[in-house]
Amino acid sequence: MAPPRLIDIHSHFFPHSWPDLSARFGGEWPWMRHEGDRRATVMIGDRPFRPVYDACWDMAVRLEEMDRHGVDHQIMCATPVLFAYDRPVDQAAEVARIFNDAAIELREQGRGRIDVLCQVPLQDSDAACRELERAMAAGHVGVQIGNHVGDRDLDDEGILVFLQHCASLGAAVLVHPWDMIGTGSPRMRDYMLPWLVGMPAETQLSILRLILSGAFERLPGDLKLCFAHGGGSFPYLLGRAENAWHERDIVRKDCPHPPSHYLDRFHVDAAVFDAGALKLLVEVMGEDRVLFGTDYPFPLGEKEMGALVLGSALDEAVKAKILAGNASRFFGLEQRRVLVGA
């Protein structure tokens, strides 16, 4: 079977509806307010969070839009607002089961063109490992996690235990920024600045924590780790971190190698929206470590899916890697097709 032309590794879903979590657990929880004309608003309590439309929950609509843009396959995950990392572990575990089971139901409507990532109660490594095992057995190809749990970043001991377990199960990990720096500050309240400034900063912070803490020295080399949104600010400010490592012992005290040494330990998606940024991203990360991703179907996602890569000045062989080849390898999609006889 010829490899797919486009594999989108970063897309999201919301179910059409889900149990009333506020009635079940108390407090404010996300819920879906349907508004007709295929539109809805995700609410948190009585506050609007995000406008969405039926591609989030209707796989026929999603497949039609994938066809329109030439996307052969999508990896789909929930949205960080559903993580519940700040809730009691038993509540977060139940919420993870609800949305992981919903993801499998949506995948089954995807005619073999949809795969899904689970979510886990990352605030407790044992509970997170249990739900990861359950979800992988049900058919998930990996897990989406937030880039931190409160003040605990990816180099936290419990999160490292979870990442080691992901490697042992062959579970791919997509790290998505959330709960952004500065949210709630008057300086960030306008113009979606938490998404425009805080999200890239969060991802850079998490990558540097893994590098400078020495965490990558403790993680298995076969861990499949990908950071969303082109790695945030990291690829574009690598030189600053590299210079700091060489010039200041307080930067390198826990890290035996300069930051550039660790570029082969993780991947990034290509959702950067600019040809110059994409060119630099490939130069920094290498052509084998950039995966096509769109953030579909959200307002800040790529509207013409694949247009940035296809219209770039990159070599055609590099485009093919980014658009499909790297993702197929990262998620083991060809092997999965052989196993299921697709």
UniProtKB/TrEMBL annotation:
GO terms for biological process: secondary metabolic process. One of its GO terms (molecular function) is aminocarboxymuconate-semialdehyde decarboxylase activity. InterPro entries: ACMSD, Amidohydro-rel, Metal_Hydrolase. Its EC number is 4.1.1.45. It holds the Pfam family Amidohydro_2. Keywords: Decarboxylase, Lyase, Metal-binding, Zinc. It comes from Rhizorhabdus histidinilytica. Residues 7-333 form the Amidohydrolase-related domain. This is 2-amino-3-carboxymuconate-6-semialdehyde decarboxylase. Belongs to the metallo-dependent hydrolases superfamily. ACMSD family. It is an enzyme of class 4 (lyase). SUPFAM superfamilies: Metallo-dependent hydrolases.
